[in-house]
Request: fold
Amino acid sequence: MQKRVRKAVFPVAGQGTRFLPATKALPKEMLPIVDRPLIQYAVDEAREAGIEEFIFVTGRNKSAIEDHFDRSFELERSLSEKGNTEALNAIRELVLEPGQISYTRQQSPLGLGHAVWCARHLIGDEPFAILLADDLILARPGCLKQMIDLHAEIGGNLVAVEDVPREQTDRYGILDVTSDDGRIASAKGLVEKPKPADAPSTLSIIGRYILQPEVFEKLSTAKPGAGGEIQLTDAMARTIPDIPFRGLRFDGKRYDCGNRAGFLEASVAFALDRPDMTERVKAMLKKYV
Ligand code: UTP
Reply:
């Protein structure tokens, strides 16, 4: 029997330089797709997957995220007095139970691996999930639910993967694959951002992980890797001799909202997916193409 995955880490301490000036004072994770911020999609995906504890690794300028998931008594009272139940429900539904959410800080943005390591005391000795809010996934059931269901059967370390064009391997962590049945791939190694010619495959890791707590030991002795950052990929790679490492080609579509074109595409796709907006958005798109 595998230990159940109850906790999720949301690293939100990055600087979001690709979205400046929008992200000068606003966290990247608060940029909205249709009518909710990226981070809310990630939290909702984790809730759907049965996650009970939500751990945010934040940094400077990120207080808007804490406010977003908190009660807002003045706003609630004003909406209630106006009888605006739709908006009232929308802001009430997103608030988690008291004590379900905690925040820790990454004092300097030393990389994703370092951000995850900052959550080690809050995770303790159990498998946990990591969700990167800028990888937005349209999937039913949600990507993390698909992963947690599979993880309950096979355990180990499990990440969401996607085939990418070979010329893009230098943007991702890439699996060195030993076996692949078209849905689940096993890896004997991982390489962060390899040049296309050096990439051991084109199977890339995207921002959903379920990891065993042993990764923290590897992170605590990690040296800066690609880009001078403490890389999660390197620490995960070092667990491979002891813990099986697998990638799941999940059922769904992922949008890279960390770059402008991906963000725009996600806005269109998520608007088209909203029954109340589909027809209006289709008509609007026809005007432009
Ligand atoms: P990115 O690689 O997209 O970096 O981080 P970034 O800083 O957010 O954006 P750019 O590249 O400067 O435009 C992927 C995820 O890891 C988190 C980010 O917040 C994002 O969710 N992260 C990254 C941290 O929490 N800390 C870090 O030191 C780096």
Summary: The mean pLDDT is 95. The chain has one domain: 7-161+178-184+203-256. Residues 135 and 211 are 18 Å apart (CA to CA). The pocket of uridine 5'-triphosphate is lined by residues 11-18, 28, 57, 106, 109-112, 114-115, 132-134, 258 (CB under 6 Å).
